[in-house]
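Posting here for the record, re: protoporphyrin IX containing FE.
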Amino acid sequence: MDALSDQLYERLFTRFLETRRMFPDDIAELKQKLVAMLANGVDLLMDRENFQAACRGLGLRHVGYGTKTDHYAILGAILIDSLGAVAGPDFTPEELGVWTQFYLLVAQEMIIGSRQTSSEPLLM
Ligand code: HEM
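Prediction output follows.
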């Protein structure tokens, strides 16, 4: 998972330098949070209502970080590339498909959350 988050941010900042200034100088903690969230995806999904509220809350906070809707597609493409790079030959197309679907689901809820007003109740 460490290798994955290293790849992810390295690729993001190499391809889209403009996003570097949105992040704090030290992103060590952030790397852990992002990957922990993705790694706990299945647990999160089991609790559908919480999952939705958590993702929407996260999306709303991302507006404050300067994240635009377009950035989600960019990060999604980079995530899939990074997974392919770290996972090696054991990574099946099916597994890649599951990760892609999960990312899309989280991103979709985050985008919905980004359009909500902060007066609505949100978890996380
Ligand atoms: C599914 C997609 C994403 C997930 C799961 C995710 C997850 C997270 C998490 C868990 C944090 C920690 C802070 C918090 O909980 O509010 C965070 C911070 C952050 N994310 Fe994301 N993120 C996603 C997409 C993006 C995108 C597309 C961008 C824009 C390039 C972005 C930019 C940032 C920035 C700039 C911060 C941190 C700001 C700070 O600490 O000052 N994220 N993200």
